[in-house]
Each structure stands twice: as structure tokens, then as C-alpha cells.
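Page 37, continued from 36.
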């Protein structure tokens, strides 16, 4: 059965209506001076509004782009989106885990059923193992912490501090880190994206990754000043820089974007460590919204490139610029978006974080400068190589050779900065 009621501009009327309702309730919350409030048993705060906007935007975007979507696919996407929204407003840790895993499970089933690629079963096993080996230990830790605290309500967890409880919450923190995923737990993500359909890739990079940040904020917010966690994020800088450099060796657009997405999501985690009041949490969520929308936009560009041109390899992008002005501008806009170029919101979040580091930690400030420079340089290098016609399917060594050249420049720059 084909759903045609979701196509056309009229579908966006519902989106703007829902966003208007969210905005009005947010204004009521802000004017009353509340961080959040309860409504029919759900806890609605800033996190809920940010993430709900992102999920609803992606949900409506998928069905406005697709003109022939099966009913079962619509159902799975709806379940995944609804479960993601419920994750952001429930305060029972067991309910949170259930909705979290249901959102991933729906995407997993969609990966098996909707993907047109032959290796989708291998990618599905990667995603299944990720869900099982991170999900069940997380459930065990949440149940044990609830037993120690005496309540499943996560709003009460910040009032109890014992060594055993803190150790369990550190384990919970790293399980959510693996669910984002931050390096070095990211190796499965490019494989899944390469074999998944566009809709699955949009869901994974759009909001599933952000649920890990939601879990860190909900369960581990009072641990974020811990030195151990700060050391972990300090060593994430070289990891993410090498991941971004490895993008230069990717010829598949989906794998390239997946690696670049993992390299950029570091900013969302770093926003949680240097904050005044709730600014760090809100900036983390704002970055998550910008990161999700940019990934969605570029995945749909890859879908357009593959549907019209028949290929999604990076050298094929040069053909797009022969199709006319509009496709060329869309391609350029996508590269600017994923490179966090101004005036996109992700640029201003990175600028805010850089200013915070400049006041508190000189070492992290220089690491951040180094990271931001190359995280924006790499997408433009790929775009420049395509525009210059220096890369072809028969001569892909340009990307490889210049990848190692930029790696050498990075090492020299690091020595000079230190």
C-alpha cells in the first residue's frame, strides 16, 4: 500500500502547528521561571523541547521527500520517532530504557526490510550486537542504581552519593558514550550507514545518536565535573582528528558522512563540561539539533545523487555541477552545513565552546583550535578536489596522497602549538 497523503506541502502544515504548540508551552515554562513541569505524568523541560523539535522535523521531512512509502515502513518510523520523544519526557529509568531500545529496534527492523543493498544483513548484525551489548548491561546498571537509591525516579538520583553509586553511574556514563557513539566505540557506524537505506541513515544520524547525549544529561549530569571523565574527553581530541582525516580516504559518500558525523559529535559532549547554569546543557542540545539537521540534509543529497545519477561515490559529485545551478547550490550548501560554516548554529556553538576553553584551560583551547581548523578543512578539501576535477574513479589516489600530506601538516602544527 502506498501512502500519498504524506506528500505535498500541506503535510508541513501539521508540522508548523505542532511546533507552534511546543513553542507556546515553552514560553509558558520560561515566563513562569520553571526549568520544567509535569504534564499528565510526563516531565517537560528544555531537553524535551529541543529533541522533540528535531524528531518531529525529521519525521515530517522523511515523508515530504518520499512519495511512495509503504504502510509498514511508516509504522516503524512512527514508532521509532514516538519512542525517541518519550525518552525525553519520562523520568522512570526503566521506561527510559524501554523506549530507547524500542527506537533502535524499529530502525533495526527497517534496516532489514527497507534497505536495497545485499549486505544489509551484515549491517543489521552490527546494529543488533551494538544494541544488545550496550543495552542489557545498561538495563542491569539502571536497576542496580535504582536499588541503591530506592527509587526508579531519576529526578531523585542526585541526592544520594556513595562510592558504589558513583562507580555504577560512571559505568552508565560510558555505556551511553558507546551508544552515541563516541570514539573508540564507533567502528560499526560506517558499516551500518553504507548498507542502510536513506531513511535508516537519517534516523540513525538524525536523532538516535542524540539519545545518547540525552542519557548522559538525564543520568550523569552531576558527574560531569569529574576529572576521570574530563581526561577521557581530552584524549578524544586526537581520536576525532584522526577520524576526520580518515574521511579523506573514503570514496563512499555514506561512509564519509558517517565518519565525519562521529568526528563532529565530540562538540556535543564537550559542551557539557564547561557551562554556566544550564547554558552548557542547552548548547549541547542545540548542537545536537544542528548536527542532526545537517546530517539529514546531506543524506538526502546523497539519496538525490544516487537516484538521479546512479552513484554515490565522491568523485561522481563533479557531475552534479553540470546539472544546473540549483543542484550545485544544494551541494555547496550541504558541504557548508556539515563543515559548521557560519551562519549555521553549529558554528556558533563551537565558537562559544572555544571562548569557554580560552578562559579555563589553555591546553584544551589550543586542542580546540586545532580540531576546529581541520574539521572544517577536510570537507572543503573534498569539495575542492571534486570541483577541480582532480579526482576520478580511475585516479582515486589524490585523496589518499593528500590525506597523508594533511596528516603531516597536522603533526607539525601540533608540535608548534604545544
Amino acid at each position: 500500500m502506498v501512502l500519498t497523503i504524506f506528500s505535498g506541502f500541506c503535510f508541513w502544515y501539521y508540522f508548523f502547528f505542532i511546533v507552534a504548540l511546543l513553542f507556546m508551552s515553552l514560553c509558558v515554562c520560561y515566563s513562569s521561571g520553571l526549568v520544567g513541569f509535569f504534564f499528565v505524568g510526563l516531565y517537560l523541560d528544555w531537553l524535551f523541547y529541543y529533541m522533540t523539535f528535531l524528531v518531529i522535523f525529521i519525521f515530517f521531512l522523511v515523508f515530504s521527500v518520499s512519495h511512495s512509502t509503504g504502510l509498514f515502513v511508516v509504522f516503524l518510523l512512527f514508532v521509532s520517532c514516538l519512542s525517541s520523544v518519550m525518552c525525553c519526557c519520562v523520568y522512570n529509568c526503566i521506561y527510559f530504557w524501554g523506549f530507547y531500545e524500542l527506537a533502535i529496534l524499529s530502525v533495526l527492523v527497517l534496516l532489514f526490510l527497507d534497505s536495497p543493498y545485499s549486505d544489509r544483513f551484515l549491517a543489521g548484525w552490527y546494529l543488533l550486537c551494538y544494541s544488545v551489548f550496550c543495552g542489557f548491561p545498561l538495563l542491569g546498571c539502571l536497576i542496580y542504581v535504582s536499588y541503591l537509591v530506592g527509587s526508579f525516579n531519576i529526578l531523585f538520583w542526585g541526592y544520594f552519593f556513595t562510592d558504589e553509586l558513583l562507580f555504577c553511574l560512571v559505568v552508565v556514563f560510558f555505556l551511553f558514550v558507546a551508544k552515541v557513539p563516541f570514539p573508540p566505540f564507533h567502528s560499526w557506524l560506517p558499516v551500518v550507514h553504507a548498507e542502510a537505506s536513506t531513511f535508516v541513515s537519517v534516523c540513525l544520524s538524525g536523532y538516535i545518536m542524540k539519545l545518547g547525549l540525552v542519557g548522559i544529561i538525564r543520568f550523569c549530569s552531576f558527574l560531569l565535573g569529574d576529572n576521570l571523565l574530563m581526561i577521557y574527553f581530552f584524549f578524544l581530541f586526537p581520536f576525532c582528528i584522526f577520524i576526520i582525516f580518515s574521511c579523506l580516504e573514503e570514496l563512499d559518500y555514506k561512509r564519509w558522512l558517517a565518519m565525519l558525523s562521529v568526528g563532529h559529535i565530540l562538540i556535543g559532549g564537550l559542551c557539557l563540561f564547561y557551562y554556566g547554569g544550564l547554558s552548557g546543557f542547552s548548547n549541547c542540545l542545540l548542537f545536537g539539533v544542528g548536527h542532526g539537521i545537517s546530517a539529514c540534509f546531506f543524506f538526502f543529497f546523497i539519496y538525490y545523487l544516487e537516484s538521479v545519477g546512479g552513484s554515490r561515490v565522491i568523485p561522481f559529485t563533479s557531475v552534479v555541477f553540470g546539472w544546473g545551478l540549483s543542484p550545485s547550490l544544494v551541494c555547496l550548501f550541504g558541504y557548508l552545513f556539515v563543515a559548521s560554516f557560519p551562519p549555521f548554529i553549529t558554528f556558533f556553538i563551537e565558537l562559544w565552546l572555544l571562548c569557554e576553553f580560552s578562559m579555563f584551560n589553555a591546553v584544551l583551547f589550543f586542542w580546540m583550535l586545532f580540531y576546529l581548523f581541520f574539521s572544517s578543512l577536510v570537507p572543503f578539501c573534498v569539495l575542492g578536489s571534486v570541483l577541480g576535477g582532480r579526482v576520478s574513479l580511475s585516479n582515486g589516489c589524490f585523496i589518499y596522497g593528500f590525506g597523508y600530506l594533511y596528516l603531516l601538516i597536522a603533526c607539525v602544527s601540533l608540535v608548534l602549538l604545544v
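The two ends are 61 Å apart (CA to CA). Flag for discussion at group meeting. Strands lie at 2-3, 36-39, 42-45, 69-70.
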